Amino acid sequence: MKTNTKTFVACITFALATAGCVPVAVTAVGVGMATGLGHTLGGMVYKTFTTPEANVKRATLGALNRMQIKVVETKRNGSTETIKAKAADREIEIELEALTPNTTRMLVVAKKDDGILRDSATATEIILQTEKFVDNKEVATR
Fold first, then answer.
1. Rounded to two decimals, what is the model's pTM?
2. What are the distances in angstroms from CA 108 to CA 9, 55, 86?
3. Mind listing the pLDDT tens digit for each residue in 100-135?
4. 38-141: which CATH number, 3.30.160.690, 1.10.599.10, 3.40.190.150, 3.40.50.720?
């Protein structure tokens, strides 16, 4: 009986001592996430750039070229540019929306297996590579 009481007290003490760790860990993950991508939701990956839409488009095309992803189609509808691309069994759709003259929202969706599954890892990498082009101003040299 004494062993069970000691175990119970130890468990309660541990639970109370670590109760504040979860919010701290969640906050740390959120802060770390903010440095890379704006938002990920159901395989759709978003990022907002403080760069004109034309520069983000050039950076996106440069990133796709670097990754050897073939652009299939580009289409403009108002302030939104849609780029469709293909890599192996993935269909990729990139939406660039000019929010202001100097702010562009990028949405990337990579679908696999006829759109049943979404590949957020590939979508994330496309945004990260685009961000490298934008940050390094590689776009201006192309």
1. 0.69
2. 50, 17, 13
3. 999 999 999 999 877 788 999 999 999 999 999 998
4. 3.30.160.690
